[in-house]
Amino acid sequence: MSVALDENCIEADEPGGARRDRVVALGGGHGLSATLKALRSIDIDPTAVVTVADDGGSSGRLRREFDCLPPGDLRMALAALCDDSTDWGTTWRDVLQHRFKGQGELDNHALGNLLILALWQLLEDDLVGLDWVGRLLNIHGRVVPMSSSPLVIEADSWQGDNCEHLSGQAAVAKATGCVKHLAVVPADADAHPEAVRAIDAADWVLLGPGSWYTSVLPHLLLPAMHRALVSTKAKKAVIMNLGTSKAETVGMGAADLLEALEAYAPDLRIDAVICDPRQCGDRARLVACTERMGGTLMEFEVCGDACGGVHDPLLLGSALKQTFESLGA
Prior knowledge:
Helix content: 40-55%
Radius of gyration: 19 Å
Largest sheet: 7 strands, parallel
Distance between the termini: 40 Å
CATH superfamily of the largest domain: CofD-like domains
Number of strands: 10
Order of helices and strands: EHEHHHHHEEEHEHEHHHEHEHEH
Oligomer: single chain
Number of helices: 14
Shape: globular
CATH architecture of the largest domain: 3-Layer(aba) Sandwich
């Protein structure tokens, strides 16, 4: 079964109106959700390009049973872009995010994951299925998988002289040693054509915040995605995390994270690094790495007093708006 959306399903600029900046945000999970919620507060045209390597929880179970893309991070991106100014939007957002609790096979499955899987099976097109969910939620923007194939993340975790090879996003995310030799499998997997098109047509591309090795860096490891990010004429910004993780990036400050990004993509040029001044850490190293990559360090308070280590959507939205206006497109 193949169903095409009508032209009103995907947002477009009003005829005769000013074109909104096209902003592509790359990542997955809670970090990408934070960026998307921030982008909703400013007048831009957003596209989320989402990592498809999750192998844990509800997503992992569905991926193994149905040989499908893991839907969880895609679901979270859809929910983050939902229009929550109406009861319709907030209700369907909550339905999408609802997790079943019980003793049977549905336990801990997110209803949105099942809805997305049902549409994929009915429509036989991953992107069209996501567009239909976006239409149901009346989202502002579009959600696109980074690849049409589910990916596996692999890495080595070093603790002193001991090395453990880890396979799978869930395993790498729990690494407590120094993560090295990060890779995605299959290494030659194709990037989703719509993800490449969106990056090529963008005014701005955003990387981060989020789980650095399992949500952010994988976008740079897929050859077609890497080429698209290097060749696009769009300006690029990196949004740094707040604080350090208990695993995967344990003990790593902002400079460490940016240097890791530089190591995996030495040919990537950036225009801005957005960092909360309280999280800059070794500021001299952070500035030096930013400048080596061609960018400017932009310091904004993006964490409210009660944020609990999560970016405040309005503060981050304001920081992004000022960055876009300051550096242009």
